[in-house]
Amino acid sequence: MTIGDSVKKTAIIWHREDSPPKSDHLVLLWNSFEQINERSISVPRFIEDHDIEIRRRLLAGIRDVKLACVDGKSVAQHLSIDEHTSYWWLTLFALKRWTGSSNIPLACKVIAAHMIFQQHNISHVELQCDSDKDRVLLARCFSSFIQPEAQHRFRGAIARGVFFLTFITGILRAFGSLVKYCINARSVLSVTDRASESRDLIFVDFLAGIDNEMMQAGHFVSTYWGELPSLVSEHDSLSTEWLHVFPKNIDAKEISSANRNLELLNQHNPNSHSMLLFKPNVSVIGSSIQTYFRLAQQYLRFKGAARITSTSDDVKSIWPLFEHEWRESLIGSTAIRHALLHHSIDQFVMRMPKTSTVVYLMENQPWESAFVQSFRKHQTGRLIGVAHSTVRFWDIRYFQDEREHSDDGLERIPYPDLVVTNAQEAFEMLRENVAVAEKVFLGEALRYGYLNHFSNETKKLSTEKRILILGDFLPTANDVLMRLVGDALVQAKEQFVLDIRQHPVCSFSEQQLGEFVSRVTTDSLQDLLTKADAIITTSSSSSAVESIMLGIPTIIVVDPLSLNYSPFRKTTRGTFVTTATELAVALDGLPSHSVRTAADYFCLDDQYPRWKGLIRSN
After folding, report:
1. CA 609, chain centre distance (Å)
2. What is the pTM of this model?
3. How confident is the model over 346-375, as pLDDT tens digits?
4. CB atoms near residue 82 (< 10 Å)
5. pLDDT per residue as tens digits for the range 52-84
6. Residues 213-240 as b or e (16 or more Cβ within 10 Å = b)
7. Residues 93, 107 contacting (CB under 8 angstroms)
8. Residues 64, 68, 72, CA angle at the centre, nearest 5°?
């Protein structure tokens, strides 16, 4: 049936692990790629088939919240810190995180479901969920399609009590976080006033990317920049500094260790290296507390988010998924941490040397929003953001509603003057947003430059092919990965030898490994890639990039609970599977000879003419 049908219908959202029974109603399979019959629709597959429209509606919804009018002002205006800065851009909702705690994949499913309801003239929805928590959440997302339950006579009073209890708890947590931060930051260096100085170039990256052994020997080697430090050093006339973001929670011992290593590096290096992390002084602490209470005041004004009304049905449907992030951003520990971050960076940028060009790693992190806004406020130089890894369709940190760039004042998105990508496909993807098309630049892939030295080889696969399984950083993705591997090996006709390497930040559980527990290895990834005949990994794993670029047959498992975050989605560079049967077919179809030829994806050139041109243009 289509929209034009006059008969209203019922749909069932099947959010359960078992298979749905036969039904005359339309069944939306929430967590499965398999379409069991003509009356069922796979929501994950629908998202992949309607990806552009769903992403567009999600990005438009985020902008709608920013512009929502409350008491005559937009949300972004209510969250102003000063006339140049809005805290809106530091909220978790605006940052569009895609970590394990993010509900962005679920928001895409909700939008997809609404599209399906419209296509099939659905007027009523039944929820079938294993978890009461999931059922309650989805009932709020689809409230206009679900018969409301009878309300408790004291429900309003209970809701008000919960609201104010949450408010007080948030404040207590925030100030506990503030005290903890100040104690642990005692080893951090204070900001010095160098506004009278000048620099040609300042680079900003993450401390975690520096080779510690090389740093202690006085050499700066970073996985993020590849050969760039050498290219910069060729220009003796350029005054250069390097700032390194401390990527972890503040820890006094780790900060002291990092300071010692940077001192050693500076003794043997002509360029200055320091952390973009500063001891909060009285001014910063006072301003941060003031900002926090202003945020808390706006939270009360908004009644959490009840007064943030939008004409967008998408916003009304997905907002329950982000209420926790919103509350945490305005009254929780995140609120005080981000307030401290903003005021610390604002003071630093005001006191830093006048800089012609700042080049920074672009990931839409909180510090970036604070830095860009403060730089526009205090400096007049050029900002260059570097998309140092891959740009993926569903990593919406790199994408915006194009109207964000023409909004006025505090509502305009903080954005660099130039965005450097490292692959033609990423370059074209970002340029699809006409508002930033002229700001996108294709440069050589700095962190993947070593691939240009890869020599082709033909490897004859052994009788029993050696398969390397690479784990994910999300436990749910590992659940899907190992379940499909176990089922596929039963269905496959051939025999395989398995090696399993866990992700550094997420180990497999014994339950996930099952009979394969003895196949876990701690060998280096480089050694394992050399021996492997094929790779099985997840769509969000960065290891798939390296294996595909090295010419190793790579099978990518797509998690139906998430999104396909692979940069190679909808290409033939990898083999994508969504079911155990598809994985078994892919394993049986592995060639007897693997011709290892680096894939043509990244922009690679040992002479780095594009980056040299950028440096010279400074």
Report:
1. 30
2. 0.91
3. 999 999 999 999 999 999 999 999 999 999
4. 12
5. 999 999 999 999 999 999 999 999 999 999 999
6. eebeeeebbbebbbebbebbeeeeebbb
7. no
8. 155
